[in-house]
Amino acid sequence: MTAGRVSVYVHIPWCLSRCPYCDFNTYAAREWPEKEYADALLSELAWYLERPPFAGSTLATVFFGGGTPSLFAPQTIERLLDESCRRFRTASDLEITLEANPGTVDRVHLAGFRAAGVNRLSVGIQSFQPRLLESLGRRHSVGESRDALDAARAAGFERLSLDLMYAIPTQTLEELEIDLSEAIARAPEHISAYALIFEPGTPLTRDLQSGRIQRASEDLEAAMYETVGNRLGEAGWSQYEISNFARPGHEARHNQAYWRGGPYLGLGAGAHSFAPEASPVAPEARFGVRWQNVRDPAHYRDAVSNDGHAVAEHEALTRAQAMGEFCWLGLRETRGISEPHFRERFGTTLDDAFPHVQTLRREGLVTQETERVALTPRGRLLADEIFAGFF
Ligand code: SF4
Questions:
Q1: What pLDDT is attached to residue 369?
Q2: Ligand 1, residues 12, 16, 18: which to mutate, most atoms within 8 A of Cβ?
Q3: Domain CATH number, residue 376
Q4: Could you tell me if 33 and 13 are in contact, meaning their C-beta atoms sit under 8 angstroms apart?
Q5: Do residues 133 and 252 share a domain?
Q6: Whether 79 and 220 share a structural domain
């Protein structure tokens, strides 16, 4: 494999408290070993940079996710970025995103991230309704959300992304409309709007199972999904993925790398990585390999210190798995998947590999324009069922 562009994800596994719906690898804490953790991240990066496919790659995107990366000091983020940019070749359009939670940042803090090189800020708003923030167990207020967005602009962020959530128990369509109106009025370059997911084992799912709360009906969730698409579309944000909307040119390139099967290196506790071909973890993997790091932050640091990396488990993809992933990940994007690209990569046609695609076409769930296959608006409503057909 020749060295190409690579995306780097950096996981910061701490939050001030845990939201009851969250199943991310994150730990509630008031203090954390920031310097030691950053040391481990840089050691892990150095280990990968001596090995294919990451050696000699060009750094295209960096994403600080969590957890709550905005809890870290700007100086720590600056150190991580300076070292990364020194060790990689960097793309001229390098995208550096940091996730921030309202209530953890002010203008000075955000200006520090901007000066460190972060050029895209993703703010976890979720809702502008106090009662919904409370039911989601978010620790920030609506006022803090508004302050964070104002502070981000004042700190010089020209690429701002805002996360919204819908299908929250008891949320009405009118409340969603109000959230969308405020999001639109704030004019971020990018909006992610996700339906609440009840992940196994979370406190919110236990509330659901005990009958204390009820999920939004399927009809309401579908109406909310359509409302999100219609309102944002009318206001000038184009939907480029199932849950993501952007002003032209402001699509999240880091996430596009995931959906397009590009290599990404996940650094940090519990981080996931993927290499489409050979990798230091499974040099024999022909159709790609993904791997996950040790989840506990202290164990992660120990593993990096002992072995240079912290891989807990890996999976070499079979040809069938790789073909399925190509389809269901690619179909997340509204531009869909390229049939010639599929043929070139797997040596067979899409219809031969997945005959049910013909049924999807007949039922109007996928469209076929030129040589690309994409979900129709109706197909997007049934995306999860359609994706399951490629597993
Ligand atoms: S702030 Fe985000 S990462 Fe942290 S617990 Fe809440 S949802 Fe999870």
A1: 73
A2: 18
A3: 1.10.10.920
A4: no
A5: yes
A6: yes
Nearest CA owner, ligand 1 atom 8? 22
| CATH number for 163 | 3.20.20.70
What are the 10-residue block averages of pLDDT along the chain, 391 residues in total? Answer: 83 97 97 98 96 91 97 98 93 97 96 98 97 95 97 98 98 98 98 97 97 96 97 97 97 97 96 86 83 98 98 94 96 96 94 94 88 94 94 86
Statement: the pTM of the whole predicted model exceeds 0.90: yes
CA 378, CA 366: separation in Å to the nearest integer? 8
Length of the chain: 391
Distance CA 338, CA 330 (A): 9
In a domain, 174, yes or no: yes
| Segments in 138-284 forming alpha helices (H) | 142-154, 173-186, 203-210, 218-234, 253-259
Nearest to 71 by CA among 113, 42, 20, 114: 113
Could you list the residue range(s) of the whole structural domain that residue 98 is in? 5-257
Q: Are the C-beta atoms of residues 214 and 171 closer than 8 Å to each other?
A: no
For residues 224 and 343, state if they share a domain: no
Q: Which two tokens stand for residue 151?
A: 């502070």
Q: Which of 9, 23, 24 to mutate to test the pocket of ligand 1 (most atoms within 8 A of CB)?
A: 24
Asked, for residue 272, whether it belongs to a domain, the answer is no
- End of a domain among 257, 274, 305? 257
User: 382-388: long-range contacts (C-beta < 8 A, 24 or more apart)?
Assistant: 383/242, 383/331, 383/332, 386/328, 386/331, 386/360, 387/328, 387/331
Let me know whether 180 and 107 are in one domain. Answer: yes
196's CB contacts (< 8 A; 6+ apart) are 21, 136, 165, 166, 167, 168, 169, 216
Q: Is the CB of residue 101 below 6 angstroms from any atom belonging to ligand 1?
A: yes
Q: Could you tell me whether strands 190-195 and 244-246 are parallel, antiparallel, or unpaired per DSSP bridges?
A: antiparallel
Q: What domain count does the chain have?
A: 2
Residue 356 inside a domain? The answer is yes
Looking at residue 3, its pLDDT comes to 67
Closest CA to 381 of 178, 213, 242: 242
